[in-house]
Amino acid sequence: MTLIRVEHVDKSFASRHGSISIMQDISFEVKDSDFVAIVGPSGCGKSTLLRLIQGLDHPTAGTISFRDQKIDTVCPQMAMVFQSFALYPWLTVAQNVAFGLEALGWAPERIESQVERYISVTGLDGFQEAYPRELSGGMRQRVGLARALAVEPAVLLMDEPFSALDPLTAESLREEVLQLWRDPQLPPDAVLLVSHNIEEAIQLADRVVVLSRRPGHILAQVEVDLPRPRDRKSSAFYDLTDRVYSLITEGGSAMASKTRPEGAPSAG
Amino acid sequence: MPAGTSGRFRRAASYVTRGVRTGVSRLSTPLVQLAAITVRPACRPSARRQAVIYHLSLGTILVLVWLMLIAIIVAVYTVFSGTILPSVRAQMLMLPLAVGFSISRLVIAYAICLAIALPLAILMARGPRARRVGLPIVEVVASFPATALFPVIIFELVPYISAEGAAILMLMTGMIWYLFFNLLSGIRSIPPDLEEAARSFGLKGRKLLRRVLVPGVFTALITGSITAFGGGWNTLIVAEYLNVGSGQSLSVLGVGQLIDIGYAEHADGGYPLMVAALFALIATVIVINELIWKPLYRRAVERYRYD
After folding, report:
1. Contacts of B305 in chain A (CB under 8 A)
2. Is B202 in contact with A79 (CB distance < 8 Å)?
3. Domains (ranges, CATH) in chain B?
4. Inter-chain CB proximity A82 and B304 less than 8 Å
5. 3-state DSSP call for residue A79?
6. From the list A78, A82, A131, which residue is nearest B193 (CB)?
7. CB contact set of B247 (below 8 Å; sequence gap of 6+)
8. Backbone phi and psi for residue A23, each to the nearest 5 degrees, phi listed first
9. CA-CA distance, B64 to B56, in Å (whole number)?
10. Min Cα separation B99/chain A (Å)
């Protein structure tokens, strides 16, 4: 079943030099139990695309729908995890996790049990009363994850969630996200990950949507049919990584020289 | 000099220094402990209760010190330069009440300032168009010396808003810009992701304001409030008593007024009133800083700061 359908989406912003096109003619789908990654050079509009999909911003042209319903306000069936964690420093871990539930108007008793559940799912037991400032980067992102999962979203949107973490912490969190996604008892049904890290995308996703330099358009959708757990050192993994790399470098530079308007700032 | 005498002297001197040292350490140890309690994060209830007790006891001590200070000034003056005139003494006895009036006036002026400055700052921080149009206007108005307006306020507005209203209006001119500019920069420095995260859970409008923008601007609000009150104490001296000649004057009971009256009549026995009122003002500012602003500022830095 198709969860998210993105059709011919354009996005441009008004600027002093006229309108700047961020992305052009983006179309792809996220199906039930998909793990889709969007990769591309920085400035290609990956993060903007994620915000359009949740309804935080609107496309200039084209449509985005969730379960065949056009998205025109923020979609409560999706929840976002941020690169910067975006935790509230004045709230404890438990209060941060409860934030989304309170925003959605859950009853206080239900919030409490739900918060307990997702604090334990994300391995934050014992840190309920701590403040984000007192936690390491990895623990903070667990709070970000717990806050997003607590609203039981159908789709988990992740915007560079591991980029601000050290490699070891990032690796263990990636594994946990995979486990959560595979667990039928737990949300989410599907994950949409934005990353500039191609290895990360291929390690996690079933399908990698490769975007070009700005204005971003889809260069290819690469199916990743490697068995899990995936071995980053295997030749199949290496071949896929190489393919995506060359797509971005070749496609990106060819496009950039053709379409970048005179005087516009360069991408990145 | 025989050796015994110098030894006795040295021993006596060491007794004195030891006595002073233990005395100082006995006095300072509880102070250090109390300071440690307030510095510790107030997330545990026991620590919070101790902090409350600490501030209450500090408050009592400071108020007692304040009263003693005034008493000492009056006593010293009486001893050295004869008696205080009964009319002046009557005004000096009004000092505690005057301080109360001045504080109330400042609090009212502050509340009105906040009610104006916060929405204005939010409007200008979040709307590029409002900022482009409004900010230059605000900057010009804020740079205009408010004291130049005071005679106008007295001549034109007192009949409509009473002396009390005019005093509060004048206080506001000395307070509002500190609040506004601190709040403006505070709102603009809230990390955009914090707002985005809230919006991604469907928060908007007033709820977004209450859950993210208001706590997000807390540190700037405290800094702005401290400076606004600083400006307010300063303005009190003109706002509570202003003689613009030709029989037109404004006078409302307050510590600023008593300083002014004492100064105006200093040659006619008003001097002790001026000094006592001045010390009362200084002591009040210190008490309020210690009891209200310092704990709030500490809390803001501990809890509401972004990394």
Report:
1. 89
2. no
3. 84-303 (1.10.3720.10)
4. no
5. strand
6. A82
7. none
8. -150, 155
9. 12
10. 35
pLDDT one-digit tens code per residue, B168-204? 999 999 999 999 999 999 999 999 999 999 999 999 8
Q: Where are the beta strands (DSSP E) in B172-285?
A: 241-243, 249-251
Instruction: Decide if A137 contacts A165 (C-beta within 8 A).
Output: yes
Q: 3-state class of A28 per DSSP?
A: strand
What count of other Cβ atoms lies within 10 Å of the Cβ of residue A172? 11
- Chain B residues whose C-beta sits inside 8 Å of any chain A C-beta: 41, 43, 191, 193-194, 196-203, 207, 211-212, 215, 218, 303-307
pLDDT digits (tens, 9 = 90+) for B241-287: 887 666 667 889 999 999 999 998 888 888 888 888 888 898 888 88
What's the pLDDT at B40? 41
CB of A54 less than 8 A from some CB of B: yes
**Three-class secondary structure assignment of B108-177:** HHHHHHHHHHHHHHHHHHHCHHHHHHHHHHHHHHHHCCHHHHHHHHHHHHHHHHHHHHHHHHHHHHHHHH
Mean pLDDT, residues B76-96 taken together: 78
- What angle (nearest 5°) sits at the alpha carbon of residue A240, between those of residues A238 and A246? 100
Cα separation, B79 vs B85, in Å, equals 14
- Cα–Cα distance measured from residue A191 to residue A138, given in angstroms and rounded to the nearest whole number: 19
ipTM of the complex: 0.88
pLDDT exceeds cutoff 80 at B32:
no
Instruction: Lay out the sheet containing A61-66: strands in order across.
Output: A18-31, A2-15, A61-66, A69-70
Q: What pTM, to 2 d.p., does this model score?
A: 0.78
